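Checked the freezer inventory, then went back to the computational side. Two predictions to log before the end of the day. The first one is the construct we discussed on Monday; recording sequence and C-alpha cells without edits.
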Amino acid sequence: MAAGYETTTSRVSQVPIITLGLSLSVFFAISYLLCLAFILIIPDVGMHEPWFQFLPGFSLSAPGILLGLVESVAYGWYVGLLFGWLFNFFAARG
C-alpha cells in the first residue's frame, strides 16, 4: 500500500424507522390538509377526485375528511416501516 493512504471500511448507517414513519406521516397529513385548504379556496378545480381512488371512504364531509387524514397518516407509516426495514436490510448486507 502506498504511503499516506489508509484503508477504511465504512458502513452505511441504519435508518431510524420510527423517525422515518413519523416524518412521512406528518408530511402526508400536512400535504392532505393543504390540498383540502386549496379545495376551499378554489372549489371547482376537481382536485379531490383522485382521493376517491387512493383514500377509500373519503368524501367532502367531516367524517370523510377525518378518515382521509387517518388514511394519510397510515400511508406514511406504511411507507416508513416498509422502506425503512428494506433499506436497513439491504444496507446491512452491502
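The second is the one RB wanted added to the comparison set:
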Amino acid sequence: MIGYITLGTNDIERAAKYYDALLAELDAKRVMETDNFIMWGPGPGQAGLCLTKPYNGNPASVGNGVMVAFAVGSPEKVHSFYEKAISLGSTDEGPPGPRGGGFYAGYVRDLDGNKLNAFCMTES
C-alpha cells in the first residue's frame, strides 16, 4: 500500500550522505534524483524513502507524531541499523530492545530531526 514516504530537509547534500550510508544497511540505493529531491529504495516499483527541500521554499520542519519505520528481519539488523545511524550523527530516541508483544525496535532522529525506527517481530 505504501508507495513512498517523503521527509523534508534543509541541507540536501548532508542528508544525502547520511541516507546513502544508512539505507545501504537495508540494501537500498538511490533510484531517482533531481537537484532538490532524492529517492532511495530496494528497486523500481517498490516502496521508497524520499528527501526534498520543501517546494514552498519554507524551512523543513519535523512533523510531531511522524515517524518512518523500516522493517528488518532480525534483532541483529535492528542493532546494526541503530548503530549505523548513531555513527552517522543520529540522536538516540530509544535503544534497540523488546517493546512488548513480540515487537523489537530501536529509535533515532536523523540529522534534520526526523524520527526513524528499525523493527522486527520476534516471538513474544
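For RB: The chain has one domain: 4-54+64-121. Residues 25 and 81 are 6 Å apart (CA to CA). Let me know if you want it refolded.
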